[in-house]
Amino acid sequence: MRRAIIAGTATVSGVVLLLGIKGHPDTAAASTPIGLSANSGATSSTGSTGSSGSSGSTGSTSTAAGSGSPTASSPSATSSPSAAASTSAAAKNYTGSAVDTRYGPIQVEVTMSGKKITNIEVLEYPENSDRDQQINSYALPQLNQEAMTAQSAQIDAISGATYTSEGYIQSLQSALDQAG
User: Fold this and answer.
1) Which residues form a coiled coil (predicted)?
2) Which residues of 149-170 are buried (b: 16+ CB within 10 A; e: fewer)?
3) What is the pTM of this model?
């Protein structure tokens, strides 16, 4: 009888603990399409959003629907007039080198106004599998945010996205090296 009470209590406790587990803190970021552009807040570019799996496209980044391979649009293209109007004449774009990672290449483009990073756009990233898409849907926006805040490539890697983080940081540093 005593064992039955202990077993019942342990089972109830285990169920309560399982039901109390919260989901991943970035579940909102997972539903955000990966057009992956971080800007300093002057204007947000809201180009058309399509979807291919869990990744979509906004701005000038595009994914080939059904192909499973990442594609990049022209580095200096902007899709909305408001984004082009908000970019001052002194702003320049620098495209980092495409860094090969274990899961595929990563490449970023940085928009600089003077010595300040005003926008970072991920042009190419691994998206060959559902897992790649899941990881990049939360990791790349965090990396963009960290880099914008730090105004450099001296940022921390995202846990669970080590290869993506390393490739992102290397490509970002390459773009910043071009900027001087």
Assistant:
1) none
2) eeeebebebbeebebbbebbbb
3) 0.54
